């Protein structure tokens, strides 16, 4: 139970205290009117039994005023409970989501290799909503549903222990039924949540890949996957309700059967004169008051099981260790790879094997090699998106695995092969490079990256909104915007991954010029398939299947007659290729 509260509160059980206290107060206040009602009944009963003594109107008035007072107190406690539970729930969900999003940002990218993006969306939206509902509705009901019987039990035992035991005798059997079937319930909830996440992933895949699905006419196949996932969701949901429903109903009936037992016992005790009618009535009134919230707790039980699983999923991600390190690096020093071996996961072959090289400060180093040889992996490791398994990477003498990941990235500007633009204006997308940049600085960077003219020609200029992922711009336009970002960042280390890949011939030379500005006096690592673009690099490292096969300058590599020389020869010949019918 404690683990449950720890999980739903995101590890901060103290935040549930106000809700808990308000629910306890509410539970106590709700038992109170039964006592007053019995007192009214008792007064009336005495009057009809012995009319010669007259009606005790003072007592009747006092009790009625107390009942009125109780109405206000219960309104007050209920509004406290309402306020506290909703406030805590929504604050917890909002801050929890933000904290988790921030936590995820600090994790190694290896985490995303293991997790489906749609699963993460579900976690941040559905799972949190589930926990939110639990804190706002189920937890207060659980607490007041437990507190009321506990207080009532203690109070009623003083009045008549036989009736009290009769009232509660069946309750343990109801709870035992739930306890015995606990693992079955957990399995059912888990299956349903998994099926829900799978359906959401397939839906995201279907919508995200709609262009490919249309282009390759693969609607049937992909739709079948989507259909199967929704079918599985339907099956697991029905299974959950069909099994959990009768179980909870059974537990509820068992608990409530205590009332019947109590009425039977009470009738016999009344007959043999060892119980008075007012006390019997008191038990009847308190009994219905206790069993209603208790029934509500059991009704919510299924939902609480469900949220326990959601909370567990959230906690699992929160427990993922972010990249550690607090050392600052000297970005103007050399970047050294020393016997680095790295694989993306324990089952995959190493993407880099025993790789060693040095990138001197303020030089341009080009990474060359066939597709999959590990070029992008090198740049990802310099940015510390992952930590290496063997060997060491150092920048300015500082080992990267001890470096502060946030501060490290402040020293690095990256132009990715696949540019992602946020759903924001073009100006703000460039400003990501430097959030404090003025409009004039943004425009200057855009001019240098050869994108000012096309932006200025748009009706809203720099305020033009960009579709999610940059869907409203061409590949070349996106690429130039990302170069503008890098120019604005003005970081001492620049990583260019196929930066001119999606530019047309007309723009390429202009952007090449912009890149020349970007890389001036910087330590640059550039990946290029077209060797023509990097022939003037200070140093060229050739990778083959995750290992360094040769390195040197363009001249020395061409002369040595190795892989680079062959690639160079092939690309020279391919300059004038064309499509033949
Ligand atoms: N996120 C990833 N998860 C698992 N394996 C990956 C991941 N990224 C790359 N790899 C694998 O690591 C190896 C090296 O990939 P990398 O992207 O570094 O090659 P590359 O030389 O940059 O290729 P390209 O020129 O096609 O971009 C490949 O076998 C690739 O399949």
TrEMBL record:
Per UniProt, residues of the ABC transmembrane type-1 domain are 21-304
Q: Which residues span the membrane?
A: 21-48, 60-82, 142-159, 165-184
- The principal localisation class reads membrane
**UniProt lineage:** Bacteria, Bacillati, Bacillota, Bacilli, Bacillales
Taken from the record, one Pfam family name reads: ABC_tran
Keyword annotations for this protein? ATP-binding, Cell membrane, Membrane, Nucleotide-binding, Transmembrane, Transmembrane helix, Transport
User: What residue stretch is flagged as signal peptide?
Assistant: none
**Its membrane topology, per UniProt?**
Multi-pass membrane protein
Q: Which SMART domains match?
A: AAA
One Gene Ontology MF term: ABC-type oligopeptide transporter activity
Could you tell me which species this protein originates from?
Paenibacillus agilis
Q: What is this protein called?
A: ABC transporter ATP-binding protein
Q: Fetch the PANTHER family from UniProt.
A: ATP-BINDING CASSETTE SUB-FAMILY B MEMBER 10, MITOCHONDRIAL (PTHR43394:SF1), ATP-DEPENDENT PERMEASE MDL1, MITOCHONDRIAL (PTHR43394)
Under SUPFAM superfamilies, the record lists:
ABC transporter transmembrane region (SSF90123), P-loop containing nucleoside triphosphate hydrolases (SSF52540)
* ABC transporter domain ranges (all copies): 335-570
